[in-house]
Amino acid sequence: MTAAHPLRVLVVKDDKTSSTLTRRVLEARGHEVTVCETAEHALEAHERRPHALMIVDWQLPEMDGVEFCRQIRRQPTNADIVILMMTGRAATEDLTTILEAGASDFLAKSPDQLAHLSTRIAVLERTVAERGRRRQAETALAVSKAEFETIYRSIPDAVVFTDTNNRIVRVNPAFTGMFGYQSAEVVGRALGEVTTRGRVLHGRFDEAADPGTQSASIQTKAGAEVLAELTQTDVRDSDGRLSGHLTIYRDVTHRKMLEARLQVADRMASMGTLAAGVAHEINNPLTFIMGNLNFLGSELRDIAGPEPSPRMSELHQTVHEALEGSERVRRIVRQLKTFARGGDEVVGPVDVHEILEKTLTLAKNNIRHRAQLVRDYGEIPRVVSDPTKLGQVFLNLLVNAAEALPLGRAPDHLIRVTTALSDDGRVMVSVSDSGSGVPPDVAAKIFDPFYTTKPVGEGTGLGLAICHGIVTQLQGEIRLESEPGRGATFTVLLPVAA
User: Fold this and answer.
1) What's the per-residue H, E or C state across the chain?
2) What is residue 450's predicted lDDT score, i.e. its pLDDT?
3) What is the overall mean pLDDT for the chain?
4) Which domain holds residue 232?
5) Of 23-37, 80-94, 202-216, where does mean pLDDT reach its minimum?
6) Domain check: are 258 and 333 in the same one?
7) Which of the given ranges, 2-6, 189-193, 212-216, has the highest pLDDT on average?
8) Angle at which helices 113-154 and 16-28 pack, to 10 degrees?
9) Is residue 317 located within the same domain as residue 453?
10) What CATH number is attached to the domain comprising 230?
């Protein structure tokens, strides 16, 4: 009867008659047979060409069959080889020695051993086949594990496996990169202890999110906040029993910041359109008003003569103040159009002082009730920028400085605007206030998107984040220096225009 899967078989016998008979039995079953008379030759033959099945006599010249088994098993690659030891010994301790040396089975020599050999070989064929299938399964499993490990470690999203009690079992490298925790710091801890230190945002960021997606602002180990979209699914074993959970966190901080900047840009564009219309509607009657006021002032001077009465002087002063107010309205409308224009970006050499003055005009009302304004301008060259964006940065810093001071105590506080060249040759613009300063824990997150210390409804947490983005886009740098009780200074550093 031919075997289902022919094997390479190594027969190690010094008895030619026995080895010949054994060869015939094996070849009749379709196997490829190699016969060696010594254990040393058998080891060499196996090294040249591995065999799946070995039939070995215990008694051999020089190295016996037991030592041969030990030599074979010392090589890890030989672990699946099936070895049948043939012996005339039947004592229990002898059989134990055979099996401990690495033999898979034994066959006692007897007059009818050929009949037993054929049956035993059939059994060993199945053993070899089963070991081969197991080895293939193990290899496939190892490949699958390696592929999974590669994918798991390469996923850019943070992946967390938790048990049924939601305690962390494993995290991928992206989790460490996103939240700052090493695997050893979080394994065994409840997931909620690690990922709910920030503000949970109920609902979804946008309607395009999957129904099962949640959104949260999660505090990292360093104290920064990461805006994340997260999904959690159950993990079940082969019997369908719940074995744990898989949670995936996707960092959407940058995306949300870009979306917020786009929204601001859209609003600014809309404001620019509105401002253009408002300017047109206001400028016409304003020109008429200012013309009449100029005429009225001129007539009053003629009527009053060289020595006007107190009443006439008062009227003339009133007209003069009305003219100044009208001129201020005209300047405000002009500046509003400049800063709110949402058209094409215009990048080129710009005068920082000019932009600061235009910005201070817009921020004047915010500042005058809270602080005295001090300008400390140095000689600085132009920088390459978009005037609108740079004005947006300065306006935000000035308004923030004003809001850091109490209302109605302007004589007691200062806002200082300083310009100079830094030691490394960049243009430096600083906005300082004499307020209470910024606590260290707040300073660490001051430029994070959506981070705000203002009450709900009074701040979006986007102003400084957008400023940081604009300055970075201009190849510059923005810094905060502050000590509690000694105010705060925001410094913008920009490269000089070539």
Assistant:
1) CCCCCCCEEEEECCCHHHHHHHHHHHHHCCCEEEEECCHHHHHHHHHHCCCCEEEEECCCCCCCHHHHHHHHHCCHHHCCCEEEEEECCCCHHHHHHHHHHCCCEEEECCCCHHHHHHHHHHHHHHHHHHHHHHHHHHHHHHHHHHHHHHHHHHCCCEEEEECCCCEEEEECHHHHHHHCCCHHHHCCCEHHHHHCCCEEECCCCCCCCCCCCEEEEEECCCCCEEEEEEEEEEEECCCCCEEEEEEEEEECHHHHHHHHHHHHHHHHHHHHHHHHHHHHHHHHHHHHHHHHHHHHHHHHHHHHCCCCCHHHHHHHHHHHHHHHHHHHHHHHHHHHHHHHCCCCCCCEEECHHHHHHHHHHHHHHHHHCCCEEEEEECCCCCEEECHHHHHHHHHHHHHHHHHCCCCCCHHHCEEEEEEEECCCCCEEEEEEECCCCCCHHHHCCCCCCCCCCCCCCCCCCCHHHHHHHHHHHCCCEEEEEECCCCCEEEEEEECECC
2) 61
3) 82
4) 158-251
5) 202-216
6) yes
7) 189-193
8) 60
9) no
10) 3.30.450.20
> Would 425 be classed as within a structural domain?
yes
pLDDT at 42 over 90: yes
Over residues 340-359, mean pLDDT: 76
Q: Is residue 3 part of a domain?
A: no
193 and 133 in a single domain? The answer is no
Of 28-42, 217-231, 277-291, 329-343, the one with minimum mean pLDDT is: 329-343
Q: Looking at the structure, tell me whether residues 282 and 429 fall in a common domain.
A: no
User: 108-122, 304-318, 377-391, 456-470: which has the minimum mean pLDDT?
Assistant: 456-470
Please tell me the predicted confidence (pLDDT) of residue 203.
Answer: 34
- What domain count does the chain have? 4
Name which residue leads in pLDDT, 20 or 444: 20
- Looking at the structure, tell me whether residues 232 and 286 fall in a common domain: no
CA torsion through residues 55, 57, 58, 63, sign:
negative
